[in-house]
Amino acid sequence: MSTGTTTGRYTALQEQHQKLGASFTDFGGWQMPLKYGSELAEHHAVRAAAGLFDLSHMGEVWVEGPEAAKFLDYALVGNLGAVAPGRAKYSLICNADGGIIDDLISYRRPATGKGDRYLVVPNAGNAATVAAELTARAAGFDVTVTDASAATSLVAVQGPAAQQILLKLIPAGHHRTVQELKYYAAEDVEFTFGSGAHKLLLARTGYTGEDGFEIYVPNESAAALWEALLAVGQESGLIPAGLACRDSLRLEAGMPLYGNELSLQVTPFEAGLGPVVSFKKESDFVGRSALEARKAEGPKRRLVGLRGLGRRAARSHYPVLKDGAVVGEVTSGQPSPTLGYPVALAYVDAGLAVPGTRLDADLRGKAEPFEVVELPFYKREK
């Protein structure tokens, strides 16, 4: 992440970030808060209490119509038609060759008079690409694709104290809805802040390895919501958190990042996302034939977790070695603040992906020992 540029788009919370003293970085064409003070303090706050994130750079694409489910089953590799209203599904949008255009979450909302309705959430740098791709793939389907990204902000509260913090802004009559909201589910919930009551979409689909929530809010109400959450969350240990700790948190949780672990050059099977692809669907979907062939032949390389056996961390693009020969490449890596040792994700030759395999990372000419381990590196206690 580069912090030397001031170009790019800004979220509706830019003024709030500046007041809090955030340092900024370019991410997916957006100027986003990298950290507000200590990235380690922000990381530990999310693990022990809660962090407040601005994720407004993410995309929001609405898909609605009588054939919305049928269309998404064609456009994405997952079985979106089987998702119940109120639930969500992690999926991928692939090209005809099976390469990953983006990984995304799709929320099925209650049907309206216009038909079934889904909210598809792509990553920041791919939001426009995904919206355009969905629009193009919608030809021939009775469905409307609407890109609402520019009008929508996304605020997340992540950490073990997230629920108790949110309940302070929610009327008592809605508390049970929040308390019973399952992982990978979403509901419209009434919040009270700023000028009064606001009905907002609340989701429970985190990217940190902790319990947490995401709130979809119109841009014009985002600042008031942010300020209200900071105010009520202070006594519970809530602090604003930037992209630096979000990256270390998701790495500990073994979650892939597009542009690092996922790309057009990677298929779901290499990335360990084979179960996301639904070949049980009777209908065709974009990339199906290519993915069937890739599954049959098996991946030549696999994404693995690497635990450092020394003190030095491997970084993105560092070569992975076996007996001095290059057998892979690190995609993400850094010291784990929670675990106290270096961790990394890397693509290695498929035959070396077995947990317990000893490998080395080439740290600028010096071989540093690592061991293949099961993911995730960190798993919270329930």
Automatic annotation (TrEMBL):
SUPFAM superfamilies: Aminomethyltransferase beta-barrel domain (SSF101790), Folate-binding domain (SSF103025). Keywords: Aminotransferase, Methyltransferase, Transferase. GO terms for cellular component: cytosol; glycine cleavage complex. The keyword Transferase applies. Residues 14-281 form the GCVT N-terminal domain. Its EC number is 2.1.2.10. GO terms for biological process: glycine decarboxylation via glycine cleavage system; methylation. One of its GO terms (molecular function) is methyltransferase activity. InterPro entries: GcvT, GcvT/YgfZ/DmdA, GcvT/YgfZ_C, GcvT_bac, GcvT_C, GCVT_N, TrmE/GcvT-like. It catalyses: N(6)-[(R)-S(8)-aminomethyldihydrolipoyl]-L-lysyl-[protein] + (6S)-5,6,7,8-tetrahydrofolate = N(6)-[(R)-dihydrolipoyl]-L-lysyl-[protein] + (6R)-5,10-methylene-5,6,7,8-tetrahydrofolate + NH4(+). The keyword Lipoprotein does not apply. Residues 301-379 form the Aminomethyltransferase C-terminal domain. Substrate binds at residue 214. The glycine cleavage system is composed of four proteins: P, T, L and H. NCBIfam families: gcvT, PRK00389.1. The glycine cleavage system catalyzes the degradation of glycine. Belongs to the GcvT family. HAMAP family: GcvT. This is Aminomethyltransferase. The gene is gcvT.
